[in-house]
């Protein structure tokens, strides 16, 4: 094994959706990697392709209308895109698992949470019913659900939003995955509950030594827990780097705009009210992307070349890459 | 000088009906004794987590839900006792902007009709005056008069919120309640709407009640902030005091729980245990006592009153 061997490597991934209105290039030539035990943040606004990227990795793209048209996803010397469903099950839920934004709709309402968690052990670890049930109680204990022996017989509707998300995490971590993909895990929750869940995820990450891919639009959550950040816009990676570099020395005009457009807690109280920097215009429709850089119509620093040619992701520092003509030559 | 709006001991309880005869089985205690004033030209913020009663408070002020108790005095008139006609006349001066710009605009009406409708109902700005007024408002909120002939579905979320704001401004109100005005919008669009709200406040001398769960947005927009929990105000103070000198244990926990998009800020996070209790079975005493780390013996027996501890900083907590 060489040094540049990554736990997960996504290479030139393209996931398109074929609909009546045309082809939506939801993920358009995205490459990324994850290392063992790291927390990678995937950030962007709605429609930027961050969730579709994650769903492509565990092959949850509904086909049709969606289709992965190009690319490879390498995990443990296997290209996940070449596996059939049976082989895929060895990975999905077992070595790579996922938690979703809405814990109400991602749990089955007609089964108890005990049924749903113990199923994981029966399927992936081939344990019998009794052992699985005991492991399920342990899993609930690990996510700090009080009275797990009692709670395990409850149905999802009997639990609060935060509790449901804990159950989702218990399920996702039940098989000691190497990668946990968390798609907006706290967006549906209140801030004090969000703090509980983030705190829990960070503790469990250390216990389980799983790498976490955290997908969110909340820059605050990313700044607090991610080690590395990938910023996406209209299906493409526009910037990636260490969290500190992205937040302190953002390079891409979109990243800069995004960071300056959010009011920061306490800033007005400590200093004074500054007018927020706006990113003018709107997020482009994925059906009508321009020939050049998709951020060109909204970019305050656009060059003539940006209209015609798509910039390549260029390395500008250690782990720091940016896709912008301001930082690269033709 | 009299306040523009005075809310006193406002209570809203929703009955839970059961069975064939709709027997009342209990109540959801959404708002429990909220008192608040809004001065002319002031922006006041109501913050709290879901279910804390902030939206219900806003709706009860406008009588979009009927209060169960207490009074709302707007421009020296008691809103809670108004008849239908009086209430309608009052709404000329008090308007609301909703959270969801998708469901709050009628899809079968053009933007001109949406903004012109309140003028027709109240019989102000008629004929060519109305067209001029609509064009003026569209300009004010950053749209063009040509866009007035289009339907809501032709606009993006941010533009729709602008239309909702233009509609609220149609009758030249003094006071606007904005219920989560930016939370349905993308991050890069939120700044546009926040800036617009501030510009409009300066241009028209508006007073705002901003209802939001995002404390950073509220800090940016509001002069004074009320922190709510389970239908009661826990702390009420200027934005500076809330952020630099929070006193109530809940305010402290809430502020510490918010992730800040700045890697240079290191902070101590207070993790609250458990969930918000149900508003159907309110806890005895202080609504926050079951999750409070500083609770005293008295806290589960008596509800602490909201008291001024000096400098217009109000706290409902026995620690002070």
Which structural traits does this protein have?
heterodimer, B: 320 residues, alpha/beta, eight-stranded mixed sheet, 12 strands
Molecular structure report:
The complex is a heterodimer of chains A (330) and B (320). Chain A is an alpha/beta fold and 330 residues long. In chain A, 32% of the residues lie in helices and 23% in strands. An eight-stranded mixed beta sheet of chain A has the order 6-7-8-3-9-10-12-11, with helices on both faces. In chain A, strands 2-1-4-5 form a four-stranded antiparallel beta sheet. Chain A is globular and about 65 Å long. The mean pLDDT of chain A is 88. With 320 residues, chain B is of the alpha/beta class. Helices cover 29% and strands 23% of the residues of chain B. Chain B has nine helices and twelve strands. Chain B has helices spanning 54-61, 84-90, 111-122, 128-140, 157-169, 187-204, 215-221, 239-244, 249-257; strands spanning 5-18, 23-38, 43-47, 69-74, 77-78, 94-97, 175-179, 207-212, 224-229, 232-238, 307-308, 314-315. In chain B, the strands form two sheets. Chain B has an eight-stranded mixed beta sheet, sandwiched between helices. A four-stranded antiparallel beta sheet of chain B has the order 2-1-4-5. In chain B, strand 4 and strand 5 (77-78) form a beta hairpin. The longest helix of chain B has 18 residues, at 187-204. Chains A and B meet through helix 7, helix 8, helix 9, helix 10 and helix 11 of A and helix 6, helix 7, helix 8 and helix 9 of B.
């Amino acid at each position: 094994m060489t040094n540049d061997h990554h736990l997960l490597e996504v290479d030139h991934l393209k996931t398109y959706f074929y609909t009546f209105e045309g082809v939506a290039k939801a993920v358009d030539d995205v490459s990324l990697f994850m290392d063992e035990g790291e927390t990678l943040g995937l950030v962007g606004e709605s429609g930027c392709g961050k969730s579709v990227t994650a769903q492509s990795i565990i092959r949850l793209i509904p086909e049709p209308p969606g289709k992965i048209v190009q690319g490879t996803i390498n995990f443990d010397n296997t290209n996940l895109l070449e596996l059939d469903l049976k082989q895929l099950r060895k990975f999905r839920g077992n070595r790579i698992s996922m938690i979703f934004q809405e814990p109400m709709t991602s749990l089955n309402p007609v089964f108890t949470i005990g049924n749903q968690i113990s199923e994981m052990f029966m399927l992936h670890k081939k344990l019998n019913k009794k052992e699985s049930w005991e492991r399920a109680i342990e899993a609930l204990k690990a996510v700090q659900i009080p009275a797990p022996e009692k709670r395990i017989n409850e149905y999802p509707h009997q639990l609060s939003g935060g509790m449901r998300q804990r159950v989702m995490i218990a399920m996702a971590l039940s098989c000691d995955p190497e990668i946990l993909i968390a798609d907006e895990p706290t967006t549906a929750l209140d801030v004090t509950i969000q703090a509980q869940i983030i705190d829990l995820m960070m503790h469990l990450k250390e216990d389980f030594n799983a790498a976490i891919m955290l997908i969110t639009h909340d820059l605050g959550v990313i700044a607090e827990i991610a080690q590395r950040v990938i910023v996406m816009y209209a299906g493409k990676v526009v910037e990636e780097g260490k969290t500190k570099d992205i937040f302190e020395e953002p390079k891409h005009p979109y990243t800069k705009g995004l960071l300056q457009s959010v009011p920061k807690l306490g800033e007005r109280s400590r200093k004074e009210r500054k007018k927020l920097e706006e990113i003018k215009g709107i997020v482009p429709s994925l059906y009508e992307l321009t020939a050049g850089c998709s951020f060109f119509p909204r970019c305050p620093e656009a060059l003539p070349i940006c209209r015609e040619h798509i910039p390549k992701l260029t390395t500008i520092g250690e782990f720091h890459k940016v896709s912008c003509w301001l930082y690269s030559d033709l | 000088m009299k306040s523009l709006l005075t809310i006193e001991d406002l209570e809203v309880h929703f009955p839970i009906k059961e069975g064939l005869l709709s027997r009342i089985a209990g109540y959801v205690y959404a708002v429990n004794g909220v008192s608040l004033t809004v001065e002319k030209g002031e922006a006041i913020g109501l913050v709290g987590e879901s279910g804390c009663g902030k939206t219900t408070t806003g709706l009860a002020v406008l009588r979009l839900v009927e209060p169960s108790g207490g009074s709302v005095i707007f421009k020296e008139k008691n809103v809670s006792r108004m008849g239908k006609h009086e209430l309608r006349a009052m709404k000329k001066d008090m308007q609301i902007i909703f959270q969801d710009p998708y469901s709050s605009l009628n899809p079968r009406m053009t933007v001109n009709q949406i903004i012109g409708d309140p003028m027709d109902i109240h019989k102000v700005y008629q004929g060519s005056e109305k067209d001029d007024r609509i064009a003026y408002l569209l300009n004010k909120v950053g749209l063009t008069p040509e866009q007035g002939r289009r339907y809501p579905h032709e606009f993006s979320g941010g533009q729709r919120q602008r239309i909702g704001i233009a509609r609220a401004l149609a009758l030249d109100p003094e006071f606007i309640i904005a219920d989560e005005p930016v939370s349905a919008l993308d991050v890069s669009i939120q700044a546009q709407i926040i800036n617009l709200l501030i510009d409009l406040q300066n241009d028209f001398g508006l007073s705002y009640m901003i209802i939001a769960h995002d404390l950073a947005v509220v800090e940016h927009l509001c002069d004074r902030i009320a922190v709510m929990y389970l239908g009661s105000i826990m702390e009420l103070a200027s934005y500076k005091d809330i952020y630099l000198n929070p006193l109530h244990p809940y305010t402290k926990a809430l502020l510490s729980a918010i992730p800040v998009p700045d890697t240079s800020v290191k902070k101590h996070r207070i993790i609250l245990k458990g969930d918000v209790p149900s508003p159907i079975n309110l806890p005895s005493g202080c609504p926050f006592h079951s999750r409070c780390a500083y609770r005293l013996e008295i806290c589960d027996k008596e509800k602490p009153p909201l008291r001024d501890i000096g400098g217009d900083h109000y706290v409902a907590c026995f620690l002070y």
